[in-house]
Amino acid sequence: MTHPLRKHIEEVISLTDEEFNFVIGHFEHIKKRKHQYIVQEGEIVNKEYWIIKGCLKSYFVDTTGKEHILQFGMENWWITDYESFVKQTKSKTSIDCIEDSELLYISYENRDKLTAQMHKMERFWAKKSKIGRISLQNRILSLLKNSTKERYDLLLEQYPKLFQRVPKKMIAAYLGVSRETLSRLNS
């Protein structure tokens, strides 16, 4: 059976067995339980995570105590606080597990080494980075131009399984609305 990370990488680049063994040697495997953090606001993030199994959320809490969800992460998605990871500064977000999760992670140093030694992986992450920027741009545009109902419908269309895995209050926090507003959309 093909390793799930290899399948994921080979959506972008091809790898020989030897190359994949070299790549996977730069990763560590961890399991986290529901509600466990992988990133806490204020810490310097040294890891980028790839989700094998589970569901996570990236979020911050404002000065009034309100939670704002920036991103969900599910199988085959990458997640970290990218500003902290790239600049090695304190994280502005927290990331925790909504479900029991199984993850692979690569340290900042290992990612640097891997991309320096294997240009195919540099191309892989460049492509993933571009896809991530497109997603972020689309999310910002949706927040700026779409109604709450349109944002809800778009999320439901793009990620229907998310609605079966994530409590409604988290969907509301992602959409930037109250739980009551979200309930009115469902009625």
CATH class of the domain at 4-116: Mainly Beta
The CATH topology of the domain at 4-116 is given as Jelly Rolls
- Tell me the CATH superfamily of the domain at 4-116: Jelly Rolls
User: What order do the helices and strands follow?
Assistant: HHEEEEEEHEEHHHHHH
Number of helices: 9
For the structure shown, list the relevant keywords.
187 residues; Jelly Rolls; 4-stranded antiparallel sheet; 9 helices
Question: Could you please describe the fold and organization of this structure?
Answer:
With 187 residues, the protein is of the alpha+beta class. It has a domain at 4-116: Jelly Rolls (Sandwich). It contains 9 helices and 8 strands. It has helices at 4-9, 17-24, 82-87, 108-117, 119-145, 148-158, 162-165, 168-175, 179-186, and strands spanning 27-32, 37-39, 47-53, 56-61, 67-73, 78-79, 94-97, 101-107. The strands form 2 sheets. A 4-stranded antiparallel sheet has the order 1-8-3-6. Strands 2-7-4-5 form a 4-stranded antiparallel sheet. Strand 4 and strand 5 form a beta hairpin. The longest helix has 27 residues, at 119-145. The N and C termini lie far apart (45 Å). Pfam families: cNMP_binding. This is Crp/Fnr family transcriptional regulator. Residues 33-114 form the Cyclic nucleotide-binding domain.
